[in-house]
Design brief:
This protein is α/β, with parallel strands linked by helices. The relative contact order is 0.10.
Length: 236
């Protein structure tokens, strides 16, 4: 059974082409031609994935993305977002990722690439993704991670994480002390068919530090190994 996908795009030809190709993949597709309408649609019926243009009338894509990630509805906050835009500046890509986008595509892009990234994100965000038989939560310092129920707590207080944040943290905590390269983390937490920027890993590590570290500027849990990647501090 396909997923529900919302396309927020003001260029009718592009929206129609994306919708046609996704429907061929078996997905149910809704469209919105401006930011406010798209945000209203997402709030009324949270989709399984959003494809979001940046340059939109009434409300730009950056503001739509921010509003979704700050939503009071958990199911809406966790919806994967693919940003699509004609803007090629690296700063725009970083802003999109900072606001919570899961992936970024620059126009013009191939429909094959878009559908591949859509499949990867839907698979990684599905309820059964990363299901484990382990009953014992993983621990690192004051952090407990329950793989079975996809829950994280810090000093007994629940910490809400987005799906990719959880997958990244789980990867690190399953091998404390091991140094993972950005490429390895991208493959493990996003899937080998994900073709996003390595900077995606850095952005998600920063988010994790902001939620889990006493002082995100001086992290003691998720350590940077200069020139290599990241690791969870080993207690041994």
């Amino acid at each position: 059974m396909g997923s529900r996908i919302l396309i927020i795009e003001d260029e009718p030809a592009i929206a129609a082409s994306i919708a046609y190709n996704l429907r061929r993949e078996g997905h149910a597709v809704a469209t919105a031609a401006d930011g406010l309408s798209g945000l209203d649609s997402a709030r009324r019926e949270p989709p399984d994935l959003i494809i979001l243009d940046i340059m939109l009338p009434r409300m730009d894509g950056f503001e739509v993305c921010r509003s979704i990630r700050e939503s009071s509805a958990l199911e809406l906050r966790q919806v994967p977002i693919i940003v699509v835009t004609a803007r090629t500046a690296e700063g725009d890509r970083v802003v999109g990722l900072d606001l919570g986008a899961d992936d970024y595509l620059v126009k013009p892009f191939s429909m094959r690439e878009l559908t591949a990234r859509t499949k990867a994100l839907l698979r990684r965000s599905s309820p059964g993704a990363r299901k484990s038989d382990a009953a014992t939560p993983l621990a690192a310092g004051s952090i407990l991670l329950d793989l079975d129920n996809r829950r994280v707590s810090r000093r007994g207080r629940a910490i809400p994480l987005k799906p990719r944040e959880f997958d990244l943290l789980a990867c690190l905590m399953q091998a404390p002390g091991r140094v993972f390269s950005r490429e390895d983390l991208l493959d493990r937490a996003w899937g080998t068919d994900f073709v996003g920027d390595l900077r995606t890993v850095d952005v998600h590590v920063r988010w994790l530090r902001e939620k889990l570290e006493d002082d995100p500027a001086k992290p003691s849990l998720i350590e940077t190994v200069r020139g290599v990647g990241y690791r969870i501090r080993s207690e041994r």
